[in-house]
Amino acid sequence: MSTIEKGNRLEDKLYGYLQDQLDQSELVFDAYPPDLCELHKKKKFFCSERGRDVEFDVVVEVRRPGRS
After folding, report:
1. Statement: residue 66 has pLDDT above 90
2. Is 2 helix (H, G, I), strand (E, B) or coil?
3. Per the confidence metrics, is the pTM higher than 0.85?
């Protein structure tokens, strides 16, 4: 198995673990209410230093109550 395959498996496990927390209405990372969190896989964000998008394997976006 290649290192890329190993990394993808690890990412999948982490994503599944976090998705289970959301699905069961548990605190994400034992700290954040699930209704304030969004989970993404392979999400891209613009990096001004690189002048292009950077892709993150697993992203948890956390909002404040009442914010989008």
Report:
1. no
2. coil
3. no
